[in-house]
């Protein structure tokens, strides 16, 4: 199960790098297709893709720091999630898929962090 969780987080990271990179560095039509882009969040998600890969490699290797990495990633994503929702709640435009994606990232990494903590105690 540990290897599966690691593989999923690494794939999650790679997808974040690819999708974020396509919007940041790809043709303008790609960015236009995304609708309302929150550029700071896009950069955050793109850069966090690398952190997801590093965290996933740590999980794969059962590194002592993997749990801490998962909590830090979960925390960073939770802060980003709270910021996006606050931005949206005061009336700013945010794509509905952005609201779902930012919550999903925080939720996935929170689940990974909790699961790793339970595995370590077991």
Helix run count: 5
User: What is the overall pLDDT average?
Assistant: 94
Helix content: over 70%
Tally of domains: 1
Number of E-type strands: 0
Strand content: under 5%
Order of helices and strands: HHHHH
Shape: globular
How would you characterize the largest beta sheet? none
Structural class call reads: mainly alpha
Q: Kindly report how far apart the N and C termini lie.
A: 14 Å
List low-confidence stretches.
Answer: none
Rg estimate, integer Å:
15 Å
Oligomeric nature of the chains: single chain
Identify the notable features of this structure and list them briefly.
single chain; 122 residues; mainly alpha; 5 helices; globular
Describe the protein.
The chain has 122 residues and is mainly alpha-helical. The protein has one domain (2-121). The chain is built from five helices and no strands. The chain has helices at 2-25, 28-33, 39-60, 66-89, 96-121. α1 (2-25) packs antiparallel against α3 (39-60).
């Amino acid at each position: 199960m540990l290897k599966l969780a690691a593989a999923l987080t690494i794939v999650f990271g790679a997808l974040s790098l690819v999708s974020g990179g396509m919007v940041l560095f790809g043709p303008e039509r790609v960015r236009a297709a995304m609708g309302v882009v929150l550029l700071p969040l896009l950069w955050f998600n793109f850069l966090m893709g690398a952190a997801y890969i590093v965290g996933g490699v740590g999980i794969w290797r059962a590194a002592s720091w993997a749990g801490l990495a998962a909590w830090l990633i979960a925390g960073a994503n939770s802060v980003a999630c709270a910021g996006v929702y606050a931005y949206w709640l005061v009336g700013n435009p945010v794509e509905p898929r952005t609201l779902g994606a930012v919550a999903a990232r925080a939720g996935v990494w929170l689940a990974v962090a909790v699961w790793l903590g339970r595995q370590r105690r077991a």
